Amino acid sequence: MCRPLVRFTLMAFSVSALFAFQAAFRPFPAMKDDPVPVPSGANEKTERAFTRLMYPSGVHARVFGGIGIWLIDYPKADRQFVQGVRRLTRIHTRSSEQVVDPDRPIVEIDNQDPIFHVLYDLGEKIQVPGIPNWYSG
Hints:
This protein has helices at 2-19, 76-88, 131-136; strands at 51-53, 98-100. By secondary structure, it is mostly helical.
C-alpha cells in the first residue's frame, strides 16, 4: 500500500524537476494565515528543484482570493517535502520550491512513456482526487 505512494512521490519529484531545472527561485505570494520563512539557500544551484504547477482552477478559481486551489498547503508542504528529501536521500535539491506557470496545455501522459520506467517500472498511474471531489462526494 505504501509502495504506490513512494512511486508516485518519486515520479512527481522527477517530473517536476524537469520543469524547473536551474530556474532561479521566485517567491510567490502565499496564504498569509500560515507564513513560512524562505529557507537559506533558496537560490542555490542544485541537481534538482521541486516545483508546483500553477494551473487554472476553472469554477474553483474563486477559492483563495481568485488564485485557485493549486495553492492548497503552499508553500509549507513543499518546503517540508524538500526538507525530507534533503535529509533522507542523497539528492542535491534546492531548499525551496519553484512555482511554474508553463504556457502549454496539460496533456495526459501514456503509461508506456519512458518517464514511468526510469527508476521503477510503473504499470499504471493512480489519480488522486482533489479537494473539490472530496467535498462533492
